[in-house]
Specification:
The chain has a domain at 90-107 and 230-457: Rossmann fold (3-Layer(aba) Sandwich). The protein is built from 22 helices and 15 strands. The protein has helices at residues 15-21, 42-46, 50-61, 67-77, 110-114, 117-127, 143-152, 171-178, 194-206, 208-216, 229-248, 268-278, 295-302, 327-335, 338-351, 358-365, 375-389, 395-411, 429-435, 444-455, 461-468, 482-491; strands at 3-5, 30-32, 90-93, 96-100, 133-139, 158-165, 185-190, 219-222, 258-263, 283-290, 304-306, 353-355, 368-372, 416-421, 475-477. The protein has a six-stranded mixed β-sheet, sandwiched between helices. Strands 8-5-6-7-15 form a five-stranded parallel β-sheet, sandwiched between helices. Strands 1-2 form a two-stranded antiparallel ribbon. A hairpin with a 2-residue loop joins strand 3 and strand 4. The longest helix has 20 residues, at 229-248. The two termini are 41 Å apart.
């Protein structure tokens, strides 16, 4: 298995080198030369532990890793840092199944991939005889930052730098990053939104002169964003695992289709579901759920991607995105014409919009349903779910449920649906309390205690560590000063 750029500029790149590079030289994203088939029947896969399943899936994509190397990465990642043996349990509440991806150290789905990426990167640098210190450079809309910081903290021969929008994450998410330990961890808030941060990071990756300067100083840039193929592939695993759990429990019969509703920002999580489906997993419609920043919803409805619109700061900040980077991978996968993809991305850069061909629209229409939820609609969904099922949703998962409800209403109640629960409600305690019509303390930690009392569950240890942690990171910078900030972190 080799990898190539979605824009055609690089081909025949080994899996390990694609992981190290993160982004192709032409600005494109690495995609596999083919999507492999599942190695065993879904029934056989359902009998495996999460770790063994991860090996069976990942070995198909990371073909230059030995079994020993890949199992080392998997077993190092999926261990006692998760607070449940299943790693990614599926629970039934009301008419839906919920795939809980928030049982890791940072209480968000990003843990699933960012727990393993440091180990994949460590092995990859060794395989490619790379001697420079790897600098992980990433932008976050909330969850990626903390998960990456946690994953790479004090990992040998690495530095990690995270940029986040100063007023674009929740109070708890910001605190998570500001108290992060590790001698190699660096955090900076930018005066702008997530798209500003993400675009700034992409510009730095495209700046060959600056990267050459860093190389002279012994530093090589890489990424932990979902643009890295080492992030995307591990996410495929939990869709196969979730389906297998339901099959094993008798909730699904062999071959029965399962619709999946995913709260979507940068398009990585739902793209992993698409890959799983193309590998042979019997998934039905992939429901792309947006918040008020409904650029993806409009795209799936019209075939026009247009970021020229107001940016909304919402109660689901990880979805406050107008440039969904991984959509580029989807366009390439369904169309396989790098010239067209490159042209679309150039239009996006120059005009802020592009329109795909009718052929692509038709292909996407058969796979995806898309809808959006305003903050008020997500809030009502949180309230109603707790009233009906005594189950507390975070705002992102509430968006996914609202859109799933809409899908069910419009298409008729056909089959079963899995809702991807991407974050713990503890991360958004004040928003949750407001939705539940409960008193909302100004202090976020008092709010967390109130959510704990309502749910009847103890506060996770990972939350307590943030509550009690010492603030270590207070850097704030302008978007135009991101390079200077990086140089300060690394060279001063």
């Amino acid at each position: 298995m080799n990898y190539q750029s979605t824009r055609g500029g690089e081909r025949g790149v080994s899996p390990s080198l694609a992981i190290v590079k993160g982004l192709a030289k032409d600005g494109g994203l690495f995609v596999p030369s083919e999507i492999p088939s599942l190695p065993l029947s879904v029934r056989e896969l359902s009998e495996l532990s999460y770790q063994d399943l991860a090996y069976e899936i990942m070995k198909l994509y990371f073909t230059d890793f030995t079994e020993e190397e890949l199992r080392y990465c998997i077993n190092s990642a999926y261990d006692t840092k998760f607070d449940t043996e299943e790693i990614a349990p599926v629970v039934k509440k009301g008419e839906y199944y919920y795939l809980e991806l928030f049982h890791g150290r940072t209480l968000a789905f990003k843990d699933m991939a960012l727990s393993i990426l440091p180990y994949l990167l460590k092995v990859s640098t060794q395989k490619n005889d790379i001697r420079e210190k790897i600098v992980i450079l990433t932008a976050t809309s909330g969850d990626t930052g903390k998960a990456a910081l946690e994953g790479f903290s004090d990992v040998e021969n690495t530095e990690i730098i995270v940029f986040y929008p100063k007023d674009g994450v929740s109070s708890f998410q910001e605190q998570q990053m500001k108290v992060q330990r590790g001698k190699n961890t660096h955090v900076a808030a930018i005066l702008g939104n997530f798209d500003d941060a993400q675009s700034g990071v992409k510009r730095i990756f495209a700046d060959e002169e600056y990267k050459a300067e860093l190389l002279k100083q012994g530093y090589r840039l890489s990424s932990a964003n979902s643009i890295n193929i080492g992030r995307l592939v591990p996410q495929i695993v939990y869709y196969v695992y979730a389906y297998g759990q339901l099959l094993k429990r008798g909730e699904l019969s062999s071959g029965e289709e399962l619709a999946v509703s995913v709260p979507t920002g940068n398009f990585g999580n739902i793209l992993a579901a698409y890959f799983a489906k193309k590998m042979g997993l019997p998934l039905g419609t992939l429901i792309c759920a947006s918040n008020e920043n409904r650029v993806l919803t409009d795209f799936f409805h019209t075939g026009v991607y247009d970021k020229n619109r107001p940016f909304h700061v919402t109660s689901s900040p990880s979805m406050d995105i107008l440039i969904s980077s991984n959509l580029e991978r989807l366009l390439y996968t369904v169309h396989a014409d790098e010239k067209d993809v490159a042209s679309y991305m150039e239009d996006l850069r120059e005009r802020g919009r592009y329109q795909v061909s009718e052929n692509i629209e038709q292909k996407l229409d058969g796979e995806f349903y898309s809808g959006s939820a305003r903050d008020g609609e997500a809030s009502v969904t949180i309230f109603q779910c707790f009233k009906d099922c005594a189950y507390i949703l975070d705002p992102h998962t509430a968006v996914a449920k609202f859109v799933a409800d809409n899908y069910s209403y419009k298409r008729g109640k056909q089959g079963k649906t899995l809702i991807v629960s991407t974050a713990s409600p503890y991360k958004f305690s004040q928003t949750v309390l407001k939705a539940l019509k409960e008193p909302v303390p100004e202090d976020v930690f008092s709010a967390i205690r109130a959510v704990s009392e309502l749910s009847g569950e103890k506060i996770p240890d990972a939350v307590l560590e943030v509550m009690e942690g010492e603030v270590r990171h207070n850097t704030v910078c302008m978007v135009k000063d991101m390079k200077l900030t990086i140089s300060h972190f690394l060279l001063s």
